[in-house]
Amino acid sequence: MTSFDAHCHCGQTEWTAKLEPEQQGHILCHCDTCKYLSGSTFTLNQIIPTSSLNITKGASKLGKYTYYGESGKGVHCYFCPNCTSHVYHQQEVMGPDKIVLRTGLLTEGIKNFKPAAEIFGKAKLPWEKEVAQTFDTMPPS
Ligand SMILES: [Zn+2]
Ligand SMILES: [Zn+2]
Fold first, then answer.
1. Based on the structure, what is the number of domains in the chain?
2. How far is the CA of 34 from the centre of ligand 2 (A)?
3. Residue 105 lies in a domain
Protein backbone atom coordinates (compact mmCIF):
# COMPACT_ATOMS: atom_id res chain seq x y z
CA MET A 1 0.00 0.00 0.00
CA THR A 2 1.39 3.39 -1.02
CA SER A 3 0.36 6.86 0.11
CA PHE A 4 -0.29 9.47 -2.58
CA ASP A 5 -0.45 13.23 -2.03
CA ALA A 6 -2.97 15.53 -3.64
CA HIS A 7 -4.06 19.13 -3.49
CA CYS A 8 -6.75 21.26 -5.06
CA HIS A 9 -6.02 23.94 -7.64
CA CYS A 10 -5.79 26.83 -5.13
CA GLY A 11 -3.99 24.91 -2.35
CA GLN A 12 -6.66 25.47 0.34
CA THR A 13 -7.43 21.73 0.44
CA GLU A 14 -4.86 18.91 0.69
CA TRP A 15 -5.29 15.18 1.12
CA THR A 16 -3.52 11.83 0.93
CA ALA A 17 -4.89 8.51 -0.30
CA LYS A 18 -3.48 5.05 0.44
CA LEU A 19 -3.80 2.80 -2.58
CA GLU A 20 -3.13 -0.89 -3.12
CA PRO A 21 -1.12 -1.69 -6.26
CA GLU A 22 -4.29 -2.73 -8.16
CA GLN A 23 -5.88 0.63 -7.29
CA GLN A 24 -3.01 2.61 -8.81
CA GLY A 25 -4.76 3.26 -12.12
CA HIS A 26 -7.49 5.46 -13.54
CA ILE A 27 -11.07 4.34 -14.08
CA LEU A 28 -12.34 6.61 -16.84
CA CYS A 29 -15.99 7.58 -16.34
CA HIS A 30 -17.83 8.81 -19.43
CA CYS A 31 -21.21 9.41 -17.79
CA ASP A 32 -23.10 12.61 -18.54
CA THR A 33 -22.78 13.89 -14.96
CA CYS A 34 -18.98 13.65 -15.17
CA LYS A 35 -19.12 15.70 -18.37
CA TYR A 36 -21.02 18.46 -16.57
CA LEU A 37 -18.91 18.41 -13.41
CA SER A 38 -15.57 18.40 -15.23
CA GLY A 39 -16.38 20.35 -18.38
CA SER A 40 -14.54 17.57 -20.19
CA THR A 41 -15.32 14.22 -21.78
CA PHE A 42 -14.52 11.94 -18.84
CA THR A 43 -13.17 11.91 -15.28
CA LEU A 44 -10.42 9.81 -13.64
CA ASN A 45 -11.47 7.82 -10.60
CA GLN A 46 -10.89 4.89 -8.28
CA ILE A 47 -13.19 3.33 -5.69
CA ILE A 48 -11.35 3.09 -2.36
CA PRO A 49 -12.23 2.45 1.29
CA THR A 50 -13.32 5.65 3.05
CA SER A 51 -10.58 5.02 5.64
CA SER A 52 -7.89 5.23 2.93
CA LEU A 53 -8.54 8.94 2.40
CA ASN A 54 -7.06 11.48 4.82
CA ILE A 55 -7.90 15.13 4.25
CA THR A 56 -4.95 16.91 5.80
CA LYS A 57 -5.92 20.52 5.11
CA GLY A 58 -9.28 22.26 4.69
CA ALA A 59 -11.43 19.25 5.68
CA SER A 60 -13.90 21.29 7.74
CA LYS A 61 -14.49 23.74 4.91
CA LEU A 62 -15.22 21.33 2.06
CA GLY A 63 -18.22 22.19 -0.09
CA LYS A 64 -20.88 19.55 -0.76
CA TYR A 65 -23.06 19.07 -3.81
CA THR A 66 -25.65 16.29 -3.91
CA TYR A 67 -27.34 14.89 -6.99
CA TYR A 68 -29.50 11.81 -7.53
CA GLY A 69 -28.25 9.08 -9.85
CA GLU A 70 -30.27 6.64 -11.95
CA SER A 71 -30.85 4.52 -8.83
CA GLY A 72 -32.60 7.46 -7.13
CA LYS A 73 -29.95 7.39 -4.40
CA GLY A 74 -27.87 10.43 -3.52
CA VAL A 75 -24.35 11.06 -4.72
CA HIS A 76 -22.51 13.54 -2.49
CA CYS A 77 -19.64 15.40 -4.13
CA TYR A 78 -17.09 17.06 -1.85
CA PHE A 79 -15.06 19.89 -3.31
CA CYS A 80 -12.80 22.80 -2.39
CA PRO A 81 -15.18 25.74 -1.82
CA ASN A 82 -12.64 28.20 -3.16
CA CYS A 83 -11.48 26.66 -6.46
CA THR A 84 -14.14 23.86 -6.90
CA SER A 85 -11.66 20.96 -7.36
CA HIS A 86 -13.54 17.74 -6.51
CA VAL A 87 -11.77 15.69 -3.84
CA TYR A 88 -14.12 12.69 -3.72
CA HIS A 89 -17.68 11.51 -4.15
CA GLN A 90 -19.69 9.41 -1.72
CA GLN A 91 -22.47 7.37 -3.31
CA GLU A 92 -25.29 6.22 -1.01
CA VAL A 93 -25.68 3.14 -3.19
CA MET A 94 -22.13 2.01 -2.22
CA GLY A 95 -22.65 2.56 1.52
CA PRO A 96 -20.52 4.66 3.89
CA ASP A 97 -17.37 2.51 3.69
CA LYS A 98 -16.46 3.29 0.08
CA ILE A 99 -15.81 6.50 -1.80
CA VAL A 100 -14.94 7.49 -5.33
CA LEU A 101 -11.59 9.25 -5.38
CA ARG A 102 -10.49 11.56 -8.20
CA THR A 103 -7.21 9.91 -9.21
CA GLY A 104 -6.48 12.73 -11.66
CA LEU A 105 -5.75 15.03 -8.70
CA LEU A 106 -3.10 12.78 -7.16
CA THR A 107 0.25 14.41 -7.92
CA GLU A 108 1.85 11.08 -8.89
CA GLY A 109 -1.39 9.63 -10.23
CA ILE A 110 -1.87 12.13 -13.03
CA LYS A 111 1.74 11.59 -14.14
CA ASN A 112 2.14 7.83 -13.79
CA PHE A 113 -1.16 5.95 -13.49
CA LYS A 114 -2.40 4.13 -16.58
CA PRO A 115 -6.04 3.72 -17.66
CA ALA A 116 -7.41 0.60 -15.95
CA ALA A 117 -10.97 0.53 -17.29
CA GLU A 118 -13.63 2.69 -18.89
CA ILE A 119 -17.17 2.88 -17.50
CA PHE A 120 -20.39 4.33 -18.91
CA GLY A 121 -19.02 3.59 -22.36
CA LYS A 122 -22.56 4.04 -23.70
CA ALA A 123 -22.14 7.81 -23.15
CA LYS A 124 -18.62 8.02 -24.59
CA LEU A 125 -18.19 10.51 -27.42
CA PRO A 126 -17.77 8.84 -30.82
CA TRP A 127 -14.34 10.36 -31.53
CA GLU A 128 -12.74 9.05 -28.31
CA LYS A 129 -10.45 6.06 -28.76
CA GLU A 130 -10.69 3.05 -26.46
CA VAL A 131 -7.75 2.98 -24.03
CA ALA A 132 -8.86 0.22 -21.65
CA GLN A 133 -11.54 -2.44 -21.26
CA THR A 134 -14.85 -0.59 -21.66
CA PHE A 135 -18.14 -1.34 -19.92
CA ASP A 136 -21.52 -0.03 -21.08
CA THR A 137 -22.27 1.18 -17.55
CA MET A 138 -20.52 -0.44 -14.57
CA PRO A 139 -18.50 -3.71 -14.59
CA PRO A 140 -20.56 -6.71 -13.46
CA SER A 141 -19.97 -7.15 -9.74
ZN1 LIG B 1 -8.96 24.90 -3.77
ZN1 LIG C 1 -19.27 9.61 -14.26
1. 1
2. 4
3. yes
